[in-house]
Write a structure and sequence with these properties.
Helices cover about 30% and strands about 25% of the residues. By secondary structure, it is of the alpha+beta class. The protein has two domains: about 5-100, Beta Barrel (OB fold (Dihydrolipoamide Acetyltransferase, E2P)), CATH 2.40.50; about 120-420, BirA Bifunctional Protein, domain 2, CATH 3.30.930. It has helices at about 55-65, 110-115, 120, 125-145, 185-195, 235-255, 255-260, 265-275, 280-290, 305-310, 365-375, 385-390, 405-410; strands at about 15-30, 35-40, 45-50, 70-80, 85-100, 150-155, 160, 170-175, 180, 200-205, 220-230, 280, 320, 345-350, 355-360, 395-405. A hairpin with a 2-residue loop joins β1 and β2 (about 35-40). Bound molecules: 4-amino-1,4-dioxobutan-2-aminium adenosine-5'-monophosphate (4AD) and magnesium ion. The site of 4-amino-1,4-dioxobutan-2-aminium adenosine-5'-monophosphate (4AD) has 23 residues, from β11, β15, β16 and α13.
């Protein structure tokens, strides 16, 4: 049987009788009436069961309902301006589907470590449900953005023979007689794909063996990576700005109740959706960091705290461009004006959230790229297929990667990325 009525659609059923299938979160009984906090996965609603409205057996069952028991509720939808969803259900019949004993997550406060151990159950709670719903809508906005702009989705492999973002964060795994690495980024494959499709993107999981316990690092995260032939850094920045604006607009439009539940002040999201982003060079960003008193030298890479300082300087996302080549991967396009710089960019989210996008123009000159591969001590044989993209019809091209979890953390204003996915992978967390 396919269920037809969900809490999400109750506004279409005012005054009508419905059957809802779901779970009892909490029950309050007061002599002649019971109130069930009920959820069905699409929303939350209060069920009111009066002693004279339901059969007496049902009333006994309801009175003794335990947290997270599964039930089917038959009842009438009535408007209730005080209820968060605007409705409640006046029950006529409640069926017990399965009784729960000793649900481990009680309504009292729990520490995050405890809750992470029970993540498979914790995702049922309204707050986690709201975050994961926002994530769903962000992913939807991302796909819509690229699909409506002539991009072709090209899936990048997960097993790869080479690094993309530095050997220190590679997960290696035996692959018959060889060693494979879990993909750090689909970029190199998208560079090949953009020569086939003009505009290509991949959207999938990527991996970094980053054994650092920060609020921004996961070992497995989702990245969307567009790549466009005949595009320079300026075009890349425009594409990335448009994407982040679309995400903010989509979430403001579709996730009002989730943002309210998360107590999210939406001012920064509104500015993001409607106004151009700030833009500064790496060199100017260094000046902002130095002015704050932090011991930072030109040529250093930004750490999380440095990004926070730069990001906090603006009330909107900021694009930082033209970093020193020394601290960046081999594939970045050298600046024509200053060979010490590359034509790349990062986008830092406002409100101290730091980098959500990294990308830029790629080196299209075969000889320059070969020299960079050599200089970084990488094997030219392993990258031979990648160099073919330069050997056969090389063109200027650019792209970027947006990290989904960092974006969710910022949009939902979360202190840590660990709540941005249903089953996050962190250095010390492989379960559940
Ligand atoms: O800046 P990154 O390393 O860039 C690349 O991987 C490029 N190859 C992308 C491209 O140009 N196609 O990573 C891109 C984004 C970061 O801005 C961040 O949002 C996210 O990926 N990211 C992480 N998110 C969570 N945990 C981690 N350990 C992350 N590392 C990067
Ligand atoms: Mg980066």
């Amino acid at each position: 049987m396919l269920q037809k009525t969900y809490i999400r659609h109750l506004k279409d059923f005012i005054g009508k009788c419905v059957v809802l299938s779901g779970w009892a979160m909490r029950v309050r009984a007061s002599g002649k009436v019971c109130f069930i906090q009920f959820r069905d996965g699409t929303g939350f609603v209060q069920v009111v069961a009066g002693i004279t409205d339901v059969p007496s057996d049902d009333f006994e069952t309801i009175k003794h309902l335990t947290q997270e028991s599964s039930i089917r509720v038959h009842g009438k939808v009535v408007e209730s301006p005080k209820a968060p969803c605007g409705f409640e259900i006046v029950a006529s019949h409640v069926e017990l589907v399965s009784k729960t004993e000793n649900y481990p997550i009680s309504p009292k406060e729990h520490g995050t470590d405890f809750l992470m151990d029970w993540r498979h159950l914790w995702i049922r709670s309204p707050r986690e449900h709201a975050i994961l719903t926002v994530r769903h809508h962000i992913a939807q906005a991302i796909r819509e953005y690229f699909d409506s702009r002539d991009f072709t989705l090209v899936d990048a492999p997960i097993f790869t023979p080479n690094e993309c973002e530095g050997s220190s964060t590679l997960f290696a795994t035996p692959y018959f007689d060889e060693t494979a690495y879990l993909s750090q980024s689909g970029q190199l494959y998208m560079e090949a794909a953009c020569a086939a499709f003009g505009r290509a993107y991949c959207f999938g999981p990527t991996f970094r063996a980053e054994n650092s316990n920060t609020r921004r690092h996961l070992t497995e995260f989702w990245m969307v990576e567009p790549e466009v032939a005949y595009m320079d850094l300026e075009g890349d920045i425009e594409l990335a700005e448009g994407l982040v604006q679309s995400i903010a607009k989509h979430v403001l439009d579709k996730c009002t109740s989730e943002l309210r539940l998360l107590d999210r002040d939406t001012k920064a999201l509104e500015i993001t959706a409607n106004e151009p982003f700030a833009r500064i060079s790496y060199t100017d960003a260094v000046k902002i960091i130095q002015a704050s008193g932090a011991p930072f030298q030109w040529g250093d890479d930004f750490g999380g705290p440095d990004e926070t300082i730069v990001g906090n300087h603006f009330n909107r996302p900021v694009v930082v461009y033209d970093y020193p080549a020394e601290i960046k991967p081999f594939y970045m396009k050298r600046s024509a004006e200053n060979p010490k710089l590359v034509r790349n960019m990062d986008i830092l989210a406002p409100e101290g959230f730091g980098e959500i996008i990294g990308g830029g123009q790629r080196e299209e000159d075969l000889a320059v790229l070969e020299a960079a591969i050599q200089k970084q001590g990488l094997s030219p044989e392993v990258y031979s297929w990648y160099l073919d993209v330069r050997r056969y019809g090389s063109v200027p091209h650019a792209g970027f990667g947006l990290g989904l979890e960092r974006t969710v953390a910022w949009i939902c204003n979360l202190p840590h990325v660990r709540e941005t996915g249903a089953f996050p992978r962190l250095p010390h967390r492989l379960k559940p």
